[in-house]
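Field log, afternoon session.

UNIT: design team B
ACTIVITY: writing a sequence onto a fixed backbone
BACKBONE:
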């Protein structure tokens, strides 16, 4: 499958505008978003590429007095790994979790090490929302828990849940690349209790989960909140991210209507993580 790489330039390039752009790219289903010195790279399939989406993002930024320009590069399927590897750096979260590629050194002093192939699927642990999710997970008990990871990306969160002792993990993503990456990465990390599913909220198995992880985006979280309630029991935990601080009230309100009570929230660079308990 061939992709288009969109190399985006902002003027002025500030943290506020950069974070706003990344949120919009995620909303429009761009993948593999990566920040470099003066450029923000994102990737999208040929069939999903829509010039109007970029122009809408450009207009939104212009309304904030930020000018946006871009270059489009065609990335052939056979070149993708090389492109992603050149940008992929290991992720270290304290001394408890490391996310590395096979070509990185091992981190023997770290409690949990996850090895992933650097491919196009979003969710390699580099983004603020992934860090927020992992930091919260490391504070919880996963032993003997049934876990659902919605929008699993590369499978990092589900793999971590398994390493932390989860009895069963179901990882779901509508993107075929994400599904394939999750299957491959679960095998690479010797995870035998993770079931990967290519699908959406309608693909959630007919069971209940002790913990649901959902690092997606605002609109998807709002749309799927009802399904999360249907697949949890009293005291189940729902941990969400992929949202900005401005989304806090709308997410909390929707969660409350679905019988989830807010327990905790954390933020990093205007991105937030929210943890709920099923009433």
């Amino acid at each position: 499958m061939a992709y288009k790489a969109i190399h985006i330039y902002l003027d002025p390039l500030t943290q506020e505008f950069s974070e706003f752009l990344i949120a919009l790219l995620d909303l429009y289903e761009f993948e593999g978003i990566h920040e470099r010195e003066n450029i923000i790279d994102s990737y999208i399939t040929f069939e999903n590429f829509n010039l109007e989406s970029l122009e809408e993002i450009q207009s939104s930024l212009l309304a904030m007095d930020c000018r946006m320009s871009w270059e489009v590069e065609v990335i052939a399927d056979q070149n993708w790994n090389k492109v992603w590897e050149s940008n992929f750096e290991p992720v270290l979260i304290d001394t408890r979790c490391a996310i590395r590629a096979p070509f990185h050194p091992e981190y023997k002093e770290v409690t949990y090490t996850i090895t992933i192939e650097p491919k196009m699927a979003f969710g390699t642990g580099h983004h603020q929302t992934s860090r927020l999710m992992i930091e919260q997970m490391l504070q919880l008990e996963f032993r003997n828990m049934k876990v659902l990871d919605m929008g699993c990306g590369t499978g990092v969160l589900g793999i971590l849940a398994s390493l932390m002792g989860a009895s069963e993990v179901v990882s779901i993503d509508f993107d075929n690349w994400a599904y394939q990456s999750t299957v491959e990465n679960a095998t690479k990390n010797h995870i035998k209790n993770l079931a990967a599913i290519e699908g959406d909220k309608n693909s959630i198995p007919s069971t209940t989960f002790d913990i649901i992880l959902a690092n997606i985006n605002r609109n998807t979280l709002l749309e799927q909140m009802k399904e999360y309630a249907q697949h949890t029991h009293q005291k189940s935990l729902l941990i969400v991210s992929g949202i900005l601080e401005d989304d806090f009230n709308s997410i909390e309100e929707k969660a409350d209507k679905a019988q989830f009570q807010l327990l905790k929230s954390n933020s990093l660079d205007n991105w937030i993580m929210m943890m709920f308990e099923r009433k």
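LOG NOTE: The chain has eight helices and 14 strands.
NEXT ACTIVITY: expression trials, pending approval
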